[in-house]
TrEMBL record:
Gene3D superfamilies on file: 3.90.950.10
Superkingdom of this protein's organism: Bacteria
Subunit field text: Homodimer.
Molecular function, one GO term: metal ion binding
Residue sites binding substrate per the record: 12-17
Protein name in the entry: Probable inosine/xanthosine triphosphatase
Required cofactor(s): Mg(2+); Mn(2+)
Enzyme Commission number: 3.6.1.73
Amino acid sequence: MDTKEKSVVVSSTNPVKVQAALSGFERMMPSQAFTVTGISVPSEVADQPMTEEETLQGALNRVQNARVAHPSADYWVGIEGGVEVVQGELATFAWVVIAGQSIEGKARSGTFFLPPAVAELVQQGLELGSANDQIFRQLNSKQKGGAIGILSNGALTRKELYEQAVVLALLPFLQEELYAR
């Protein structure tokens, strides 16, 4: 075990994203101790990214901005949730980008389709979390189970959805010799 705690900076203060990052790191590097800090940095994309490309760019921007804010960290994590129209329906997902000192990993979460009432509000310009709160009469659902938690009756939470993408984004860190360029 590396006795020195590794510092992870998550480019969000949302407790769901911070906890997903910590859980993902702990699963992938169980003998390592981590200190995780959530900070607020701009994504430099719309509050509700409307395409896969914009969502990935938001995660990349968040990592870069977190790195500038905390250059001495060991890892920087960007988690950006987005939506995209697929065959006339609105799908939602997140991109996770993790940067280390010399390598970067990227992964996308699972994808699911939003109910028409929620999709309509998002397409009218409301952020997904606010649309969920309005349709499902919730308060700050994006810092709890999120849309997936509500729609699955808690069988799957936003944290679990993001945690899996964190695990996938960490693959290059566990197999550095295979991913090195």
